[in-house]
Amino acid sequence: MLAYLIRRLLYALPILIGVNVITFALFFIVNTPDDMARMQLGVKRVTPEAIEKWKAERGYDLPLFWNAQALGAEKLTRTIFFTKSVRMFVLDFGRADDGRDIAREIGQRMGPSLAVAVPVFVLGLIAAISFALLLVYFRATYLDFAGVVLCVAMMSVSSLFYIIGGQWLVAKVWHLVPISGYAEGLSATKFIVLPVIISVLAGLGASSRWYRTIFLEEANKDYVRTARAKGLSERVVLFRHVLRNALIPILTGAVVLIPSLFMGSLLIEAFFGIPGLGSYTIDAINAQDFAVVRAMVFIGSVLYIVGLLLTDISYTLADPRIRLQ
Amino acid sequence: MKFVLLVSDALFFLLVLAAIIGGLWARRVEHLRASWRRVGQNRVAMAAATLLVAFTAVALLDSVHYRERLPGEGENYAVEVRSLLDGLLADLRTRTEKTYSAPLSTHSFAKETIEGEGRDFPRLKFGGAHLGENLSRHGADIRLRILKGLGAGVLVWLTLWLVGAPWRAKVPHLAWDAVFLTLLVLCLMAGPVAVLAQGYHVFGTDKVGQDVLYLTLKSIRTGLLIGTLTTLIMLPAAIFFGILAGYAGGWIDDVIQYLYTTLNSIPGVLLIAAAVLMMQVVIDTHPEWFATSAERADARLIALCAILGLTSWTGLCRLLRGETLKLRELEYVQAARALGVSGLRILARHILPNVMHIVMIAIVMDFSGLVLAEAVLSYVGIGVDPNTISFGTMINAARMELAREPMVWWSLAAAFVFMFVLVLAANLFADVVRDAFDPRAVR
């Protein structure tokens, strides 16, 4: 197991390097630092001196890959690629355009982000699986049909409308929770309840329909028929047999959710004014703060790779036949 | 008049042409015809398809662009690029009010200081202008127009019914009842809207007084384009790399797998954000590339499609690789290899036709997701050009309206309804196509 984990972590390294090279290419090969400076300072009315000053302040005045003027190892390290890209591997993200340390900012914003994302993930999974099991329990009845129709309808509504509608109804009309904002500690709950409920609702249609197909496929297998034939109740069949054997596809599906949590929290955080990573990213996009966006891309992919690894580990827990070696 | 062919127009027409040619080709292949017949017999699918065709018609009208000739001597053309749809809706486009007005209203939504009369709701310039000062006829006028519209709708529907008669006789097994029922509903909705729109703002006006009905109709093209062009752009790469990785194996497989795992491990929205930011810099620093602002907005739209394609080809690629791995070991492929058929020929003749159902399913399944993604991305500010009318930019413009007291709800409601119908139709259609083409499905 340990050997497997180490090997997987080593596999992750080339992927992270790949991500790094891709983002670097995106940000610096397509556009020169001069373009970026011009963009930030305003395309018109910009002097060469202002551009040079902007670049020097942010460390973009170095050569891209090879610094011929430096000495020794500095030929490689005193370059944009090294200072802006390679340093990310030791979690040194540099400074944002407003001068603040990105790593510190990320550390502070992680808490609020997780406070929303983790409940959304767990509750979303529970809600979708329960709803799907309910549909399978009533399969081939009008209730099942109505449920599927409801799922498709829910899938067809843009997440923007879930947020706008929910916020308007619950916070503005019913005055149940504050419209937006955030507080530290336990008092955060009242700010988090609504975003979590809305996120879960917005994802419910697609995921429960997906789980329903998985459960139905599983429920058509021979062992399930055997279980029924020996007189087990439908409830026991569903919960003991079908659910347990459908765990592998469920786990695989859950990992697919992790990057989408990012997307979800991006919107949710921006709408509800939660000072997490999502709203940080959106602010950076709007301010065209490339350093922050680059750091977030890197962090996002690290999270994704960690998620993949966690799935593999959870496979062994769900199904003892799977051995990682 | 001078026609302007934007890149996205050309691609869109190409796509429609390809769909028609593909349809004709599928008619000649037995198993494809059988699968499509199953789709055609399904009532839900045909109703959804009718709606999608209606949406596509609006988008096609909106894709024929031209620049109007300016009055006077010589060859002078207007700077603005208009589409046929703009021409048809010239009334809606030009009759802009000062600011918000509710649907079918005759007065502005907010009180203003009017000279000599104190503060009151000012009369709209165009909404209900034909009524003059006698507003007691307002309700009766609306009722009359709705009745006229319903009548016109029924007339149009009857014409369609008569025109469609030969086809109904020729292809009797299609679910024509669903098609014409959907058409009837469409006509009964569109008729009153069309008649009312001649005198009122049916869906009200937005902050700068633009007619919301016009905005929603214009948004359709953007949504459809993003949904279809993205697949068109990503398809060749996904198919080529997918079957190549599965068939060739070895280091080629490793490289392609590495490529898509790497791309996949970047959260899509961030990759899109980064790429769009970069595109924006390129577009802004090279204003000389684009003759009109429409071309610039178009370039950004194409770039967005390309970027969305870049992030979404990986899923299809992985599916195709898996399927090819399975096909490669089948006897007929082994036989072809033993006979000395070249690798490329095997890929083209034996593998590709046998994975096409996966491609087809992926295309229809992705579409609705892309339409939804466009709205979210445009809302976040990394989608289409802010000047391009789309559901995302509409919602974005409406975001502050909910905080007003009383609330301005109509732009959001209009965007919601149109988007919902479009995506719902696409989802329903996709479901049926998947069931019809998926060989694993039990029949």
Question: Topology of this structure?
Answer:
The complex is a heterodimer of chains A (325) and B (443).
Chain A: H1 2-29, H2 33-41, H3 48-58, H4 74-77, H5 80-85, H6 102-137, H7 142-155, H8 159-173, H9 189-219, H10 222-229, H11 234-245, H12 247-272, H13 277-287, H14 290-318
Helix pairs in contact in A: 1-14, 2-3, 6-7, 6-9, 6-12, 7-9, 8-9, 8-12, 9-12, 12-13, 12-14, 13-14
Chain B: E1 2-4, H1 7-28, H2 30-41, H3 43-61, E2 65-67, E3 82-83, H4 84-88, H5 90-94, E4 112-114, E5 118-120, H6 138-170, H7 176-197, H8 212-248, H9 250-265, H10 268-285, H11 293-328, H12 331-338, H13 343-380, H14 391-398, H15 410-437
Antiparallel strand pairs in B: 1-2, 2-3, 4-5
Helix pairs in contact in B: 1-8, 2-15, 3-7, 3-8, 3-15, 6-7, 8-9, 8-11, 8-13, 8-15, 9-11, 10-11, 11-13, 12-13, 13-14, 13-15, 14-15
Written description of the protein model:
Chain A is mostly helical and about 325 residues long. Chain A contains 14 helices and no strands. In chain A, helix 8 packs across helix 9. The longest helix of chain A is centred in the middle third of the chain and has 36 residues, at about 100-135. The model of chain B has no long low-confidence stretch (mean pLDDT about 85). Chain B starts with a strand and ends in a 6-residue tail after the last helix. Chain B is mainly alpha-helical and about 450 residues long. The longest helix of chain B is centred in the C-terminal third of the chain and has 38 residues, at about 345-380. Chain B has a three-stranded antiparallel beta sheet. Chain B has 15 helices and five strands. Chains A and B meet through helix 1, helix 2, helix 7, helix 8 and helix 12 of A and helix 9, helix 10, helix 13, helix 14 and helix 15 of B.
